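Running this now, will post back.
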Amino acid sequence: MSDAENPKWSGIGSKFAHLTAAHPCFGVKAHFMNARIHLPVAPRCNIQCRYCVRKLDKCEQKPGIAACIMDDEVAFKRLEVEVKSNPDLRVVGIAGPGDPLENDGTYRVLGRIRDSYPNLISCLSTNGLLLEDVAERLKDLGVKTVTITINAVDPAVGSKIYDWVRYKGELLDGVRGADLLIRKQFRGIEELVKRGIVVRINTVLIPEVNQDQILRIAEEASKRGASLMNIIPLIPQHGFKDHRRPSCKELEEARNAAERYIPQFRLCRQCRADAAGIPGKEKRAGITSEYFHG
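Update: finished.
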């Protein structure tokens, strides 16, 4: 049975069959067949998640990690190399190491991708703080899919996950920061969906912190038009370095419950910000900028 034929995937199967067939982070078959590349052009972030560590490293396989930060020219050369060498490439995305929407380089590189490689699916991952403000710009730049990480609906819970939020020059912490972020995230979903951009939700499952938020996130995101949800386990580090990971049973129970409201993606590899290739089959962790200048 294909993804589009599976009733659990009916929310995205018919309307967005072209994405489930091609995008390795949206379709099951595509996940094992098609390649993607992440261009690490976005170092700055506008929030601090208590589970997030952003750094340059050639070996660690985690979100927020890249071998280097690439400027526009190096990133585009990196993409050219992958296009020429990898016939399986279908998707080009920007996933950090910071928040793509907080970095001007993201928009410049997306414009070049739109003009030079219109057949590639252009996507990005974001915390969603700025989505409402830039949704029209993303549509004009040819972005087809956006993944938004939403970890709470209740600001009191969010305040346990986010240290601070910076918006329009104002630094907010605690419940105030979490409240602003959550409101902007859900309004951002609506603005993207209005423009025909497909939205996936990422949620980090943090035991004893946000389990009771999972169903609410799934329901609220679905109401606003999100097409897919990806519940991923906490990687204990930074403020949660002494916190336990969820068990496989807890993860599966959360996914099964949330699936009442929105289809679930169960194959996420929690990729680096410079990942390239078919997920799980990458031959290298990252390529430094010197590769293109030598």
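The two ends are 48 Å apart (CA to CA). More later if anyone needs it.
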